[in-house]
Amino acid sequence: MLQRIAMVLALVATGCPGEVDPDELDNLLAAAGSGDLGPTDAGETDLGATDMTVAPLCTAYQDIYAELVAPNCATAGCHDSVTMSQGLDLATPGIGARYAGVAGTDGPCILLDPDAPEESLFLTTLQPTNPCGVLRMPLVGTFDQTDIDCMTQWVDELLQNR
Questions:
Q1: What whole-number distance in Å separates Cα of residue 157 and Cα of residue 151?
Q2: Closest to 110 in 3D by CA, of 126, 124, 121
Q3: pLDDT digits (tens, 9 = 90+) for 45-76
Q4: Looking at per-residue confidence, does 52 or 135 come out higher?
Q5: In Å, what is the CA distance from 45 to each residue of 4, 54, 84, 122, 152?
Q6: Whole-angstrom distance between the N-terminal and C-terminal Cα of the chain?
Q7: Buried b (16+ CB within 10 A) or exposed e, 60-99
Q8: Which of 8, 16, 133, 137 has the greatest CB tally within 10 Å of its CB?
Q9: How many whole angstroms separate alpha carbon 78 and alpha carbon 12?
């Protein structure tokens, strides 16, 4: 039931095309609360149908990599396969296997920490301050919270698929 309420709220919050009528929203929330999201008239849509899905925060690993890591981190002069700033090559496949459990060069923090992924240096460097005291990344620009959430998903996937 909570998933259905969350789905309705997510659809409203993400700006579905057009405007949501407040009375219709109340009806949808009431139906979600009762567990009855099926059609009541022939012309109504079943909100429990599989075609009414909410997109995940981020898509597949390759999309997160292509949209965030490659253009912001794995670039010439930074962490590409030639420059490898701080010894990091984020341009070559096998990132998870190469850096899981490996300490960073500037302190005790782990690049990809299998025991505490959220404490991985790959993520903490995206914050204004971090426990290792290294420079905030990327050097040019910053990631917003959605980008950081996507990077968190990417790190989790790297550790799962190593």
A1: 10
A2: 121
A3: 344 434 444 445 676 456 899 989 999 999 99
A4: 135
A5: 14, 16, 53, 44, 35
A6: 35
A7: ebeebbeebbeebbbbeebbbeeeebeebbbbeeebbebb
A8: 137
A9: 40
Q: 101 with 114: CB under 8 angstroms?
A: yes
pLDDT at 158 over 90: yes
152's tokens: 């968190």
Tokens linked to 52: 């009414």
What amino acid occupies position 158? L
Conformation bin of residue 86: beta by default, left when phi > 0, alpha when psi is -120 to 50: left
CA dihedral 18, 28, 26, 14 (to 10 degrees): -40
32 sits in which H/E element: helix 22-34
Backbone angles phi, psi at 89, to 5 degrees: -110, 105
